[in-house]
Each structure stands twice: as structure tokens, then as C-alpha cells.
Amino acid sequence: MKFQVPKGVKEYLPPESAKFELVREKLIAPARFANYQLMETAVFEDTGLFTSGVGESTDVVSKEMYTFTDRADRSLTLRPEGTAGVMRAVIESGLDRGQLPVKVWYSGAFFRAERPQAGRYRQFYQVGVEAIGGDDPLLDVEVISLAVQAFKNLGLQDYEVHINSLGDKPSRESHREALVKFLKEIDLDDATRERAKINPLRVLDDKRPEMITALKDAPVILDYLTQEAKDRYLAVKNGLTNLGIKFIENPKLVRGLDYYTHTTFEFVHHKLGAQSGIGGGGRYDGLMEKLGGQSLSGIGYGIGVDRVLLACEAEGIELSPATQLSLYLVPLGEDARKYAIELLANLRNQGIRCDMAFGERGLKGAMKSGDKSGAKYLAVLGEDEISSGQAEIKHMSDGVVTSVRLTEISDFLK
Ligand code: HAM
Fold first, then answer.
1. Which atom of ligand 1 is nearest to the CA of 304?
2. What's the rounded Cα separation, in Å, for the pair 397 and 39?
3. Predicted pLDDT at 201
4. Does 323 have pLDDT greater than 80?
5. Which of 12, 57, 173, 301 could form a disulfide with 198 if both were Cys (CB 3.0 to 4.6 A apart)?
6. Measured from the CA of 302, which atom of ligand 1 is nearest?
């Protein structure tokens, strides 16, 4: 019996996995420098966490969740996103009772039952950050700048930062009223009308061309912001400008999840076709309270590692991971093999990447493996080398051979 990877699941295998690893590392690095700490949370959660947290009217919750009942008849769901789980863990652990803001990053697989296509998978990867318990607009600036820094470190250029404000509660209430009125006057299919009842804002998220046309003149929230929300939004925009971050104001940006308030943003890449969102996020006042915690605000983003990798490839960015092997050993005979495995352990301890030909292979086959390994140097270890304590080390790219004492190999390689 042969099996295949489930439909829509993107896997990363060698040698391509090295590129994925590099992209993921570069996406995480700026968060580490900014004092964000790792958070590993549950990959599956109580289904209710997502229905309450992310919102029942969203596509993610209504159509895309992988939900199952466990042996004790509990309804569980594979996490479709990271924010709700982080919030649940912060509340549960009481981290929000300590130093604020709680600044965390995470990286891992997320699951959505979407129709698979290039850049859209059922198991995909995000690197995310969340800063919880601070409503300083400069925190919004910091969060956006971390993503921009990561893109810069990768060399990405062909993308835009889109931002919008969804305001505070009073802003959203007056906008909602105007939107409901507007939606009443246009022709909507039953499903959309249902959705509008739960959350009219969701209708603005409809990507069907006929809907985009029908919603062209829909009231946008920016026109309904309270003075306080406007001031806050302005502070964020000024902060971004001061950091030299270019952005585009997109008053139609509503995002696909229900918890957003105030600043929302998306990173849109030009060379990815339909799946152009390489990341997005925003502020979420009220989420923590909704999930049974205290009333603290937060802001964060999720960046799609798969899509950033595709974006790098589309821009022709060379992703050369620093994973070249330093040394490849070809041991001949049992004594040499035993000697080699010890030598490797010793070198690896000193931070040198090295490998050897395993198994009783002939010299020719072993040399071929050495060639394929991409190692910088290769050394054959036979009886002579071990008794004399000296080996010939070949520099693979130009064939230059140097005689090195076995006890001094690490100095030579360094
Ligand atoms: P999201 O916009 O749903 O936000 O997802 C973030 C990113 O994940 C997207 O921009 C995209 O790059 C990637 N992504 C989403 N779905 C897929 C898929 N099916 N295949 C490949 N990539 C995908 C969130 O998840 C929020 N939790 C972000 C956030 C954090 N907001 C505040 N804090």
C-alpha cells in the first residue's frame, strides 16, 4: 500500500527545505531583536475558541475549519490562525498579570480547508507576533516595522503595505448603521444577506467581481471614525512615516477575521497573482475580554512563510542558506570508520559541519557521495592516514590538496 500527502498540504523536503528554513529564520529575527519571546501553543483547540474569537461570520470559521470530535466527544479544531490561541494561553497562564506588553512570536503550521492553488494550501506556515496589553500607537508602528524589516532583510521589494483603521466601538457602530442601510438597497444573494446580518463588515470582504462593483460606493469606515480614533490612526501613520516606511491607505481593507479594531494592515505582493497577501494583521481591542480575560488591547500579525518564499522566488532573490558542509570523510576499512565517527563528533562539537560515507561502500561510490554532498573539503581516511596521523585534505572546488595533521583538522577548517 502506497500513500500520498493529503490534498492541499505543502511539504518542504531537501534540498528546497533549506530555502524555507532560511526564509522562516529571517522572518523571525527582527522580532527577537525587539524583545519578543517564543510562544508554542496548542495545534488544536476547543472549537469554541475560534467561533468566539475569530467570528462565526468569517469564511475561516464558517467554511474552512478542520473540526473533529475526540474520543471523549469534545469538539476540537486544528488551529486556522494563531491569535486566538495565543490569547487563550496568555489568559490561562496569567502572563497578562505581569509585565506589559506581553510580546511574543510564534512559528508553525496552520490549517484551513480552502480550495488549494498556488500559494493557497490547507496546511500552511506562519510566523507571527503579538504584543498584548498596550495601546500605545507606537506599538502598532513597532509591529508593522518588524515585518517590513524582515522583508528588507530578505531583499523583497515588490510589495506594498496597505493600512486602514477600523476605529473604536462608536466608530464601528455608526459605520455599521450606514452600511446596513446601504446593503438593504442593493441586490444580495441569500448567503450574503445572512452574513450581513451577523456582521455587515464581512460583506465588504467579498472578492467576487460583481460584488466589488456593487460595493463600489459602500460607506467606508474612515468617514465614520470618532475624533479619538482618527487621532490614533494619525499617530500610527506619522510614526510609520518617521521610520521611512511607505504605506498605502486602503479604506476598503477589512481583513477576513472579526476581531480587528483600529489599525489593520496587509502586505500585498505584486508577483503572486490571486494569493497576493504575504501577511497581515492589526489591533484587536475586545478580543481578550471576549475570551474571558481582562480588558486589554493587543496588536499582531501573521506572515505566510509559504507565500514569502514564493515572493522571493518571483523576485529572483537568491536564497543561499549557510548550510554548506565543511568536510566529508571517506573512511576505508573498519578501523578507519570507527576513527571517523569519533573525529566527526569532535569536529561537530566545535561547530563544524561535517559528514562521512556510511556503510561498507567502495572507494568510488563513497567519493561520488562526497562530491554530491557539496562539502568544501574531502579527506580519505585509510590505515596509512590513521597510523601516520596525517591526511590529505582536498579543496573540492579547485582540487588543491593540503596535508594536515588529524589533530589539527579543526584549526585548518576554521
Ligand atoms: P490572515 O490574514 O488570515 O491573518 O493570515 C496571515 C497570512 O497567512 C496571510 O496573509 C497569508 O500570507 C497566510 N495564509 C493564510 N491562509 C493561507 C493559506 N491557505 N495558504 C497559504 N498561506 C496562507 C491571521 O491569521 C491573523 N492571525 C494575523 C494576526 C495576528 N492578526 C493579529 N495578530
1. 12
2. 43
3. 86
4. no
5. 57
6. 28
